[in-house]
Amino acid sequence: MLKDKMLEGLNNQIREELESFYIYLSMAGYFDSISLTGCGAWMKAQANEEMSHAMKFYGYINERDARVVFAGLNKPKADWKSPLEAFEDAYKHEQHISGCIHKLAKLAQEVDDPATLNFLQWFIKEQVEEESSTRDVVDKLRMIGEAPHAIFMMDRVLGERK
Ligand code: FEO
After folding, report:
1. For the whole model, what pTM was predicted?
2. Which of 1, 15, 139, 150 lies at a C-alpha separation of 20 to 30 Å from 158?
3. What's the pLDDT tens digit per position in 22-62?
4. Does residue 17 line the site of ligand 1, with CB under 6 A?
5. Which CATH number applies to 4-158?
6. Atom number, ligand 1, closest to the C-alpha of residue 16
7. How far is it, in rounded angstroms, from Cα 27 to Cα 88?
8. Which residues 6+ apart lie within 8 Å of 9 measured at CB?
9. 131 CB under 6 A from ligand 1?
């Protein structure tokens, strides 16, 4: 059985992951509205990943014979000044999520829950990738500045994300 504090933390992480879904879908809406549909597709793929992260926590809580409880989501930001600003926000958001996962891992140690600590290992690794992929786009967008043809090329490359 999960300890109360651990269950509360895991349920809160479902909210964080669903909020991530919402944030990236909002970014997709911004990109699609300015016809950067490759960036929009990249963000939709990211949003889908976040939903799958939420569902991993959902599945784990049920496996541990505990109850999933949802909380309300914050309204996501809807506009950005530039593609760079949106991806900078995505990178900052992933850093925030890494912090949440690390806190959960610390809590699992504190409450002596090795099963949850083991479950969280996948997320610890995943966050390294998530930070790296968003930082990579930020670095490239900083490099190309506001050159329209380069942004167009970048949009095509990002649209190839599966
Ligand atoms: Fe589920 Fe992007 O962290």
Report:
1. 0.96
2. 15
3. 999 999 999 999 999 999 999 999 999 999 999 999 999 99
4. yes
5. 1.20.1260.10
6. 1
7. 11
8. 103, 104, 107
9. no
